[in-house]
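Work Package 3 committed the consortium to producing structural models of liganded targets before the mid-term review. Because experimental data for this complex are still outstanding, the team generated a predictive model from sequence and the ligand definition alone, so that downstream docking and mutagenesis planning could proceed in parallel. The input record is reproduced below exactly as it was submitted to the modelling pipeline, together with the SMILES string for LV4SOB2L.
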Amino acid sequence: MDRVLIEGLSVETVIGVYDWERTIRQRLELDLELATDIRPAAADDDLAQTLNYAAISERIGVFAETSRLELVETFAERLAAVLREEFGITWLRLTLRKPGAVANARAVGVSIERGER
Ligand SMILES: Nc1nc2c(c(=O)[nH]1)N=C([C@H](O)[C@@H](O)CO)CN2
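The resulting structure, written out as tokens with the ligand in place, is given here.
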């Protein structure tokens, strides 16, 4: 299956389990692979026939702005559900990194796949 890609998308949100984390916004970095057949859009050179990565990136930003979750697991799971529902995505892989959360690691996070390929 073909995929539309979004890599290194940076958003800010309230995320974390500790008291000090509830009062600040922290950066998350996202990579997404979104399954779709790109051939109809390519044949007609028509954005309306594919997954619009700009619109999806904007929706992720809005989700992050309004979200106040504790776990990166919850953020990933709920975001995946929103994107699949609103954009009709049959399968996606979402990797979510929280840079700087662990002192000696470049990033920590989760990676999930949802849906059928
Ligand atoms: N599996 C997880 N472990 C941890 C999380 C998390 O969201 N998922 N969160 C924290 C803290 O919020 C941490 O990021 C603060 O540095 C700890 N472990």
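Reviewers should note the following from the model. The longest helix spans residues 72-87. These observations will guide the Year 2 experiments.
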